[in-house]
Amino acid sequence: MSKAAQPDATAPTDDELRTLDAHWRAANYLAAAQIYLMANPLLTEPLKPGHIKPRLLGHWGTSPGLNLVYTHLNRVISARGLDALCVWGPGHGGPSVLANSWLEGSYSETYPDVSRDAPGMERLFRQFSFPGGVPSHVAPETPGSIHEGGELGYSLAHAYGAALDNPDLLVACVIGDGEAETGPLAASWHSNKFLDPVHDGAVLPILHLNGYKIANPTVLSRLPEPELDALLRGYGHEPLHVTGDDPQQVHRAMAAAMDDALDRIARIQHTAREEGGGERARWPVIVLRTPKGWTGPAEVDGEPVEGTWRAHQVPLPGVQENPEHLRQLEEWLRSYRPEELFGPDGRPVADVLACVPEGTKRLGASPHANGGLLLRELPLPALAGFAVPVDKPGTTLHEPTRVLGGLLERVMRDTGERRDFRLVGPDETASNRLEAVFEATGKAWQAETLPVDEHLDRHGRVMEILSEHLCQGWLEGYLLTGRHGLFSCYEAFVHIVDSMVNQHIKWLKTSRRLPWRAPVASLNYLLTSHVWRQDHNGFSHQDPGFVDHVLNKSPEVVRVYLPPDANTLLSVTDHALRSRDYVNVIVAGKQPCFDWLSLDQARVHCARGAGIWEWAGTENGGTPDVVLACAGDVPTLEVLAAAQLLRRHLPDLAVRVVNVVDMTRLMPREDHPHGMTDFEFDGLFTADRPVIFAYHGYPWLIHRLAYSRTGHHNLHVRGYKESGTTTTPFDMVVRNDLDRYRLVMDVIDRVPGLATQAAGVRQAMADARTRHHDWIRAHGTDLPEVADWSWHS
Amino acid sequence: MSKAAQPDATAPTDDELRTLDAHWRAANYLAAAQIYLMANPLLTEPLKPGHIKPRLLGHWGTSPGLNLVYTHLNRVISARGLDALCVWGPGHGGPSVLANSWLEGSYSETYPDVSRDAPGMERLFRQFSFPGGVPSHVAPETPGSIHEGGELGYSLAHAYGAALDNPDLLVACVIGDGEAETGPLAASWHSNKFLDPVHDGAVLPILHLNGYKIANPTVLSRLPEPELDALLRGYGHEPLHVTGDDPQQVHRAMAAAMDDALDRIARIQHTAREEGGGERARWPVIVLRTPKGWTGPAEVDGEPVEGTWRAHQVPLPGVQENPEHLRQLEEWLRSYRPEELFGPDGRPVADVLACVPEGTKRLGASPHANGGLLLRELPLPALAGFAVPVDKPGTTLHEPTRVLGGLLERVMRDTGERRDFRLVGPDETASNRLEAVFEATGKAWQAETLPVDEHLDRHGRVMEILSEHLCQGWLEGYLLTGRHGLFSCYEAFVHIVDSMVNQHIKWLKTSRRLPWRAPVASLNYLLTSHVWRQDHNGFSHQDPGFVDHVLNKSPEVVRVYLPPDANTLLSVTDHALRSRDYVNVIVAGKQPCFDWLSLDQARVHCARGAGIWEWAGTENGGTPDVVLACAGDVPTLEVLAAAQLLRRHLPDLAVRVVNVVDMTRLMPREDHPHGMTDFEFDGLFTADRPVIFAYHGYPWLIHRLAYSRTGHHNLHVRGYKESGTTTTPFDMVVRNDLDRYRLVMDVIDRVPGLATQAAGVRQAMADARTRHHDWIRAHGTDLPEVADWSWHS
Fold this sequence. Notes:
The structure is a homodimer.
Chain A: H1 14-36, H2 63-80, E1 83-88, H3 94-104, H4 106-110, H5 118-127, H6 155-163, E2 169-176, H7 183-188, E3 202-209, H8 225-234, E4 237-243, H9 247-275, E5 283-289, E6 299-300, E7 303-304, H10 323-334, H11 338-341, H12 350-353, E8 397-398, H13 400-414, E9 421-425, E10 443-444, E11 456-457, E12 462-464, H14 468-480, E13 484-490, H15 498-512, E14 523-528, H16 546-551, E15 558-561, H17 566-578, E16 583-587, E17 593-594, H18 599-608, E18 610-612, E19 626-631, H19 633-649, E20 655-660, H20 678-685, E21 691-695, H21 700-706, E22 715-718, H22 729-735, H23 740-750, H24 754-757, H25 759-779, H26 784-787
Parallel strand pairs in A: 1-2, 2-3, 3-5, 4-5, 9-12, 9-13, 10-11, 13-14, 14-16, 15-16, 19-20, 19-21, 21-22
Antiparallel strand pairs in A: 6-7, 8-17, 18-20
């Protein structure tokens, strides 16, 4: 039985309650003071406007509730010797988490200049929401956090991700009642159907109902309690209520609820681990109802504030100019009796620290919240065992993702004991042809199973749910606590998590600059079922814009790969899985695709990121007349088919074929670490020859990346231009003018002198397009000359 | 009491059950046949490979369940004379909805070439998922639909949007159990807290548990029934169960559940409308448990198919080449006894049509599903009554969104009786300074209220919930059923609905090309609390990329406006609210902002979309030495401040100031209907002078829009480059090199000859930046010379 699960329910004594309250008051004092003070931190003199910050920024409303949770987590961690982590959903309550971290000492250990004494306290206050200081929200800069609390909705998914494969870890998760209205959070409750009580840790959700969001009551706070209980039971939880505004009574109730919850968790884990099997667990949830802005000003300017939405940010906005506000602030701050809580040197007194655990047991010092510290190298096998043999390019076909499935299966198998690798995806692992992994592990599933089900496994490490939000949230939590993973997703629907990946990139960008944060494994996307092959689904499933979205973000974090075949997919995935602190986007097809490069060639090509495919071109060492460039599997096919047509019809034309795997190579070196210098770029694409670029996604992305290049005015890009429907693969490229015939026409139109010289060839290409249109209307399939095409030089 | 609410619960007779089953069998036959057949539609001869489509595409699994729902909705619509609409969540079941529309005749009325006879039936089959035919999903092309079913998650939000302010309408909504796992759907259940039983219609959710998604069981189907009931009760619903696989028993149970549900709805509406007040209603939900792929092949190649995930798409994939599959297909299709259902001419027999309602009562013919038919002009007042007076530019300050609030208040008031205008937003109407609207209406809220609450109103037309997904989904449903609205959102967090707006743009793009679909009101975004003014929130709230996202989409649909002040905001919003079939994105600040243009000037400027601000420049009719361009309120301020600095320090430099309101003006005329010709563009920006462009968002967007222009190599763009944090407004622009001092330095660096001539000025600018850095570290506020700046020429 794990220590985390040790039941040890002793109600706190009056003395202990007194020290818990002292800790809570100290945290409340420090939280409120961060918003207001830049001097006189201990209120050793009467408060004056000169002590007040020039701009009052921050969120008070949620802070006392978070302080209560932190205090009581401290208690149970100390009492039970737990390893615990807390995800602070209402992360706008930054002052609270900073206050507690400072109290327990983890803050000063991380930032020695903010020492646990009066000068440090003043610095703690001054830096908060101050230019050059620390953000107003819980953020990467906050010790103990894996969760930026600015964009609400993802706390519970992050908590589950952290708990997976961490059997000895308790992950508490405070969910604000505003956040609880979001879709991702509403779906996250069902994560408990995927949590294995044997191999995973426990998640303890604490639903904090303080009644209001920015300007409105919250939906959940206004449900009658039986209805809320029904909802939580329907989510698979056993609710435990803590309600009140009298601190002593709430401390007692909270301590009892925490003990009850942890005893229940201990029993669930004991049953599963010692007795095996059993029903799906009904995990506890704590419902904490306390007033918004609790212990703050009850009324300001005649309006109720405590217990209302008016306490959300800064309850007394006019302290600089309004003496009554200043008086109220001083009264409020002094109501915590700071002189009892801190010595004259500013250090917290012993009573305040009585509940605080030791060392890495402190929430602000948990290595799980700085997951890079725990990260181990992923055991990645030699690729040779998985690569497809390629003697001649373009003659054999493989489904690239199926080939990758072999590699992932081995990784799954080799991490079977360590359990630090997970694959997530919305119900599409098999559809995306990665099903080899099921030979090594199953799909996590704790609910009922039927005989007809396949691959469901209480201990499985493939996570499938029809929610991209949960896939993303679970994986983020898993990675940030020091593990590895990959998210396979339909290309179009990864936009569902645009906003989440924004936040993760921001997290990584910031944490990379913090020397104390150890690098974590990259967040790896495999986007498949892509825009060009939506034969079953059509227009709604056609959107290649995630690449554009990601490339707007911090270049030190984002990487985008478009491997054109099976071996290049193996190579870039291997690279992505070894990398740290990146977001790697890999776009690759699942449909049969020609093999162009052997593994060795693929490695070299992927390492370069972009290169000339000499075997496909006709330049023969001279300067080419035209460059045919491609990025993506389908554009590569069309460019090679176009190159073959040019070879046949215009044998004297010197054609260079360039394939781009790493999209960021196209950017200037100054704009991205992978970017090419102009010298490299001109060497590859020439400075003065027409470049016909067939790109997987929106064509203007290539212009956005390459606009500053010497030869940019010669760059002509074809790509997806929102001409989609349910149709054949080749009709899709024709509709978007990315087809081989159009590319040949583009070459003829762009190479000086060819327009008249090759007018007949151009007409033949136009005729082929007409032939396609007629054929497809009659047969519903692609032209035989297209369907049966293969490369020959 | 509305007709929709008339109770009329009579259990169906055996004869009626027989006709209901005939309708259902006919729909099942037509659905299955669409996936397979391109000839021999009535099976008048033995099935041969030549009758089979060359590519088998589509989704069978959900179709029999949707057919059951359609049949039973027909029954109650006919029996009760309801006006009804149905949102088909599992919209991949396109074959089903098409089949039913064809049966009821609405399909042939919409598409006369697909007549309700044998030739039309053959066309119906052949066109399905066929190149040049119709999509495999429910789509704009589908009569009776307001909901594309490709990307799951939004059905219930759409249904609520449709029901708002439609008191006589019943909106049924089939929710697939796969879809039910998504975040947006999970949150949508709480929409019932916002539905006014007096002024809104009813939503009847039908949760269709067929047990499986693509490859997995679904979470909700594997909950024990009491747990599922608790969940649905917790969501505020009263569950009614229909479970089975015996058609007769299921028909009886479904008819009874429909009657029960409609009786309950009638009672709720009667109580609210006739008796007033009352508790929040507990609306019914039907839980329909039937096998996936019900009535299809039980086993294929020895594997169970009916009732499993294997029935998801095409249950018999090998009919072309496998005689046993072909035999099974024929047996399956003949099991519906088509000869009893259709006459020799292919027309459905009377029994099949017995349940089908008349005229616009038919689900495929509801005008609500073609909302443009019902759309009325929005009563928009003269802007003069709301505009701010501007005698001199840059001397007075207003909060633009607060000024807009006045206009919106009037629109709210003037639609008080008509009730066809709604404002949605995630808890931010007041925070975004639009609170004037609360003088005209309240915030929709059916849950408990407390004395301290403000503006909550059972009949309110402002919708606030902390879920961008619900705001978007409600508004889409509202607009597509013929009403008007506006979504005000934090700029960064509108990315949460990236994927939803994709789908809405795709919907509009397609429906614009369908002559029978009448134009609907545009979807209007007001993005405020933007990237430059996140003083309270910092980096997590800083993202201007939604404009980039939207500009990737169909140019016939998307419009992007960045009004620089209050009067321009009024003008573009007025324009947006009058427009049809667009997605208008308006980015505007809520913080005090200088007034630059009078209303008349604003109108002219916004109509042009981009123009020279002569009063701000120094070109005096000649050719300028440099163009300072700006788009967005903060960049406009910095450009004008830079222009003023240049005027003072380099009085001989001819500076042109250009402001861009309509971003799509920058695109080539061929790429967007608002795009400028090169002649226009060069006239505005010159073809050969340096252009320093200060842009609100990611700078490379401007390059992506303008890369093909003659003077593109002279274009130098400043914008947001992910350098964010919690800091002052001016520090934000300095961090991103968008500040006035940097812009002056850019001018000096780019105008030939200035570098040496104006070296002193350049140094003064660099010194000012240093002064800023020192000042902000010391004071935490902006330099007085910046804070107190105003325009003087």
